[in-house]
């Protein structure tokens, strides 16, 4: 998907707007799982989660259990978290440190690089049958300390998938100092795409987010569509503050709100070094889970950082309420599609990409 295509798409806004069955039909989600989620780069973690040899964490991508660890050779690897003996989910914990991974079924053990260590029920001549049994690896790339995996062996490398996004992100000087410090999840009753649509425009901000428009200069709010991602941003009004803490004038570069195809959002607010990611994981066609992850310099947050988190969470719950109301209407027979203003071109880009991924 190129920028040109997006521009073309804006001329066809009405014909290409997703029809509401895309938000209510379980078959559409089934197809999206295969064609969208199992073929795109998905954020699974941050290098601060695998700092030491043996550190691991588990994740789920398009329904697939995944494990990421740091090997004896310091290399970070990703595998399907599935035992090659008889498919049992290998590591049950969400995170930890292990020098050897053991399956809880028949006790096979694996080295950190995925090689089989021991298969206790294959002895003598049987041993030959399992010599080549090892964990199946998954494509993984790390950029700006963010760990992504892709289940599609033919997908373009991450570094080539999002235009100049990582270059842009890398301009934030504090990025390498951040750790993944907090994670919260919230389940809501709406299709995953409703959340994305909501994030991708700010026409609703004046109506729905009084604290957000009070903090940001909405006259200078911009939405720019780029290759497989978009960015929204603004400058912060110098006289405004988050909570009770004045923002340092020198740090007022405006917020950066990124979207990356298909379901990842990254936000950076002015003020102390910070980043948050939001991932929307479909539970079913009308239920989704928002995973909010925060990255700060330290787990012990300063007052300004706590205020920022509270501010972000307030805005998010306002959005959740809206998309749940929207889902009710998606099910109604009143209309079968919506209308999009010219300031909603990032939604048009998203919809174009959904249709393209589904071959429609
Ligand atoms: S299924 Fe894992 S050891 Fe048998
Ligand atoms: Fe919003």
Task: List the keywords.
360 residues, alpha+beta, Naphthalene 1,2-dioxygenase Alpha Subunit, Chain A, domain 1, 2 domains, 4-stranded antiparallel beta sheet, 11 helices, 19 strands, 27% helix, binds FE2/S2 (inorganic) cluster, binds fe (ii) ion, iron-sulfur, monooxygenase activity, metal-binding, oxidoreductase
The count of strands amounts to 19
Ends apart, CA distance between termini: 14 Å
CATH class of the largest domain: Alpha Beta
- Name the helicity range: 25-40%
Q: What name goes with the CATH superfamily of the largest domain? A: Naphthalene 1,2-dioxygenase Alpha Subunit, Chain A, domain 1
The radius of gyration computed from the alpha-carbon positions, rounded to a whole number of angstroms, is 22 Å
- Uncertain regions: pLDDT < 50 for 5+ in a row? 1-15, 241-252
What is the CATH topology of the largest domain? Naphthalene 1,2-dioxygenase Alpha Subunit, Chain A, domain 1
**How much beta, percentage-wise?**
25-35%
Major sheet: order of its strands?
Answer: 11-19-18-17-16-13-12
Q: Please summarize the sheet with the most strands.
A: 7 strands, antiparallel
Kindly state the mean pLDDT as a whole number?
A: 90
Order of helices and strands: HHHHEEEEEEEEEEHHEHHHEEEEEEEEHH
Shape: globular
3D structure, described in words:
- By secondary structure, the chain is α+β, with helices and mostly antiparallel strands.
- The chain has two domains: 3-41 and 173-357, Naphthalene 1,2-dioxygenase Alpha Subunit, Chain A, domain 1; 46-143, Rieske Iron-sulfur Protein, CATH 2.102.10.10.
- Helix content is 27%, strand content 27%.
- It is built from eleven helices and 19 strands.
- A seven-stranded antiparallel β-sheet has the order 11-19-18-17-16-13-12, with helices on one face.
- Strand 16 (256-260) and strand 17 form a beta hairpin.
- The two termini are 14 Å apart.
- The model is unreliable at 1-15 and 241-252 (pLDDT under 50).
- The site of fe (ii) ion has 5 residues, from loops.
- Fe (ii) ion (FE2) binds at residues 198, 204, 208-209, 319.
């Amino acid at each position: 998907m190129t920028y040109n295509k997006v521009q073309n798409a804006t001329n066809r806004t009405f014909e290409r707007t997703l029809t509401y069955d895309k938000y209510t039909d379980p078959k559409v989600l089934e197809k999206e799982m295969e064609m969208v989620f199992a073929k795109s780069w998905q954020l699974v973690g941050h290098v601060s989660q695998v700092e030491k040899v043996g550190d691991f964490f588990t994740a789920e991508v398009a329904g697939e259990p995944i494990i990421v660890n740091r090997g004896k050779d310091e290399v970070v690897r990703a595998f399907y978290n599935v035992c090659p003996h008889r498919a049992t989910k290998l590591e049950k914990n969400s995170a930890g440190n292990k020098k050897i991974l053991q399956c809880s079924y028949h006790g096979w053990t694996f080295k950190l690089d995925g090689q089989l260590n021991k298969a206790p029920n294959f002895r003598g001549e049987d041993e030959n049958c399992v010599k080549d049994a090892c964990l199946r690896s998954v494509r993984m790339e790390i950029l700006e300390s963010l760990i992504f995996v892709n289940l599609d062996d033919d997908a373009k490398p991450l570094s080539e998938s999002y235009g100049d996004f990582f270059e842009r992100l890398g301009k934030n000087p504090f990025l390498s100092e951040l750790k993944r410090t907090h994670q919260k999840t919230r389940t809501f009753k709406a299709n995953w795409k409703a959340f994305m649509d909501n994030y991708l425009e700010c026409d609703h901000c004046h109506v729905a987010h009084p604290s957000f428009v009070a903090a940001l200069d909405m006259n200078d709010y911009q939405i720019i569509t780029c290759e497989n991602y978009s960015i929204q941003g603004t400058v912060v009004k110098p006289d405004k503050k988050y909570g009770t803490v004045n923002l340092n004038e020198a740090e007022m570069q405006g917020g950066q709100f990124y979207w990356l195809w298909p379901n990842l959002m990254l936000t950076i607010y002015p003020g102390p070094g910070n980043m948050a990611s939001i991932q929307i994981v479909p539970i079913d066609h009308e239920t989704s889970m928002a995973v909010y992850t925060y990255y700060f310099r330290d787990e012990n947050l300063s007052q300004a950082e706590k205020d920022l988190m509270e501010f972000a969470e307030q805005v998010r719950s306002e959005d959740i309420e809206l998309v749940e109301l929207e889902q009710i209407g998606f099910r109604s027979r009143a209309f079968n599609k919506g209308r999009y203003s010219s300031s909603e071109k990032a939604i048009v880009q998203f919809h174009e990409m959904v249709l393209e991924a589904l071959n429609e």
